[in-house]
Amino acid sequence: MSVIIFHSQPQSVYLWTASLVAAEKGVSWAVNTVEPGSDAHRRLHPFAKSPVLQHGAILLYETSAIAHYIDRTFDGPPLQPRDVLDQAECLRWVSLVNAHMFATMTNGLAKQRLLVPLQGGKSDEILIAEAAGQLREQLGVITRELRRHDFLAGNEISIADCFLFPHLHLASMTPEGQAALKEAKLAGQWLERMRGRPSFAATDQFARRAA
Predict the structure, then answer these.
(1) Whole-model pTM?
(2) How large is the greatest C-alpha to C-alpha distance in the chain, in angstroms?
């Protein structure tokens, strides 16, 4: 029996983040599919977002809270720094991903280039062009951090990396993402490090669904 359950749409990119965190901690999980926006979904999350974590009688929504809970509740390698400043930097990266990089990498590039045509729609080339420019700027910020250490918040993986990885991985599947990563070598190397981790192999089903 799985230790935790994620209530979510299977294709949710934030489900992938939560699952990466669980995999890095060695925690087993299962996914209970919920219909987006349904009454059942809103009973779990007031704004019908995914995922929602269930651990026994505990229900917890918002991925940053879920990641923190999994890290601090279960044994396994810590995914948040103990030092106060390092922890602040880790949380800063989570905020940057949620506030800026999700919109650029996933909504602006991956969805427009990969999902919209798959669903028979026409990609918004203006939105794609804007996102491509934003991606190059964001990769510059990521590169500056990776000059200091191997991962976003230090030389060990943290929840910050689990938040960024799904978005940048999906963006890398687009022509614009591939072109930008050719100029951002350190970000590309970070992607390969993340893809080489057992947690990627354990969760790449979400990569296939999200794509």
Answers:
(1) 0.95
(2) 49
